[in-house]
Specification:
Number of helices: 12
Largest sheet: 5 strands, mixed
Radius of gyration: 24 Å
Order of helices and strands: HHHEEHEHEHEHEEEHEHEHEHEEH
Strand order of the largest sheet: 4-3-5-13-6
Helix content: 40-55%
Distance between the termini: 64 Å
Shape: globular
Structural class: alpha/beta
Number of strands: 13
Strand content: 15-25%
Length: about 325
C-alpha cells in the first residue's frame, strides 16, 4: 500500500470542511486536483472514504476509521521535521510528556533536574486527567503519560498501548474537620444523609462506588456538585460541609492538611498508576533519563503521601 503525505493532508482537509471545494481552497489546489488525490487514496486503500452528496460530502465508516491514523501520520511527519530542526540547531531532542493532574506537584522538581542534565533538550509537559491524556496519546500528540490507567487500559481494545506499573492507590473520603464521619469507616446509610461534592472519576470507580450503596439497599447520596477541579472540591468540603472522595495520593498532599478523612465501608477500588506509551514508540535515551528521574521522585513522594494518610482508620 502506497500513499503520500500530500494525500493525507488533502483527506484531512475534506474531513474538516465536508466539501471538496472548501478543502481545495484550504490546501491551495484546484478542486479537480484534490478530487483526483482523494480518489487515488481511496483506490490504494481499497475503500470509499467519502460519500458524495449534492452539497458537499460526508465520511463513510471507512473514512471515520482512517481519520485517526491519518492524524497520527501527519503529527509524526511534523514532529519528525521539528526534530530534524532541533538536531540541526545542536539540541539533544524533545520529549512531550503527559502528567496526570494529581501527580504534577509530586514530579515538578524533576523539571529543574532534567534541565540541568540536558540543557539543550526541549521538554513539553501537558497536564490533565487520565482520559484526556489517553486520547492525546492515541492521537500521537504526546510521547508518554504518567497517570492512572485503569480506564485507558479498558478502552485499549486493540492492545496498542504498553503499561509500566509504578504504584497502586485507592480512594479516601474527605470531610470538614470535626465532621461526625471523620476518622471513621462510615456505612452507606450514614453517608447518604449528607450532600456530596463528587469528582469526575473514571466510570469503573464510579460504578464500584454506586454498587456499595445499591448492595446495601441505600439510595446513592445527593450530588450537589460534580467537578474536575480539586480546588472546588476542597471549597465544597470546607465551606459547605459536603463530603467527597479523592485518590489517596491526592489526599496525602500538603494542600489537604487540615481536612478530615474517612473511609467508606465496602469501597476498596484500586487504581493502577504508571507510565503509558504506544507499543510502536521506541523510547530514546532522553526519554529513558526523564523517566528514571520521574520514577525516583514519584516513588519517594508516593511513600511520603502514604505515610500521611496511614493514620486514617481502615476499620471501625
Amino acid at each position: 500500500m502506497d500513499f503520500s503525505l500530500r494525500q493525507i493532508v488533502h483527506f484531512l482537509a475534506v474531513m474538516e470542511t465536508s466539501s471538496f471545494l472548501r478543502a481545495s481552497l484550504t490546501v491551495n489546489v484546484t478542486q479537480p486536483a484534490l478530487s483526483k488525490s482523494i480518489k487515488t487514496l481511496e483506490d490504494r486503500l481499497g475503500v470509499t472514504l467519502f460519500e458524495r452528496l449534492s452539497r458537499g460530502v460526508r465520511p463513510t465508516p471507512h473514512g471515520i476509521a482512517f481519520e485517526r491514523y491519518a492524524r497520527r501520520i501527519l503529527v509524526d511527519a511534523r514532529r519528525a521535521a521539528a526534530e530534524m530542526g532541533d538536531v540541526s540547531a545542536g539540541a539533544s531532542g524533545r520529549i512531550i510528556a503527559g502528567i496526570g493532574t494529581p501527580y504534577v506537584e509530586s514530579v515538578q522538581d524533576v523539571l529543574a533536574t532534567f534541565r540541568d542534565g540536558y540543557p539543550d533538550a526541549r521538554l513539553e509537559v501537558i497536564t490533565g486527567f487520565a482520559g484526556h491524556l489517553g486520547k492525546l496519546l492515541a492521537e500521537n500528540r504526546i510521547d508518554i503519560v504518567l497517570a492512572m490507567y485503569n480506564g485507558i487500559q479498558q478502552e485499549d481494545r486493540r492492545n496498542e498501548l504498553a503499561y509500566e506499573h509504578w504504584s497502586t492507590d485507592g480512594f479516601i473520603g474527605i470531610c470538614p474537620a470535626g465532621h461526625p464521619v471523620e476518622n471513621r469507616k462510615a456505612d452507606p446509610e450514614e453517608l447518604a444523609r449528607h450532600p456530596w461534592a463528587m469528582p469526575l472519576i473514571e466510570q469503573s470507580a464510579m460504578s464500584a462506588l454506586r454498587s456499595v450503596f445499591s448492595s446495601a439497599g441505600i439510595r446513592f447520596p445527593v450530588v450537589s456538585l460534580a467537578t474536575d477541579s480539586i480546588e472546588l472540591l476542597k471549597y465544597a468540603v470546607i465551606r459547605q460541609s459536603m463530603l467527597s472522595i479523592v485518590p489517596e495520593f491526592t489526599a496525602g498532599s500538603r494542600g489537604f492538611d487540615g481536612i478530615g478523612r474517612f473511609r467508606i465501608q465496602g469501597f476498596d477500588f484500586q487504581r493502577n498508576i504508571g507510565i503509558i506509551r504506544r507499543r510502536n514508540f521506541d523510547l530514546s535515551p532522553l526519554h529513558e533519563h526523564f523517566l528514571a528521574l520521574t520514577r525516583q521522585r514519584f516513588v519517594a513522594e508516593s511513600a511520603s503521601r502514604r505515610a500521611a494518610i496511614a493514620a486514617t482508620p481502615s476499620s471501625c
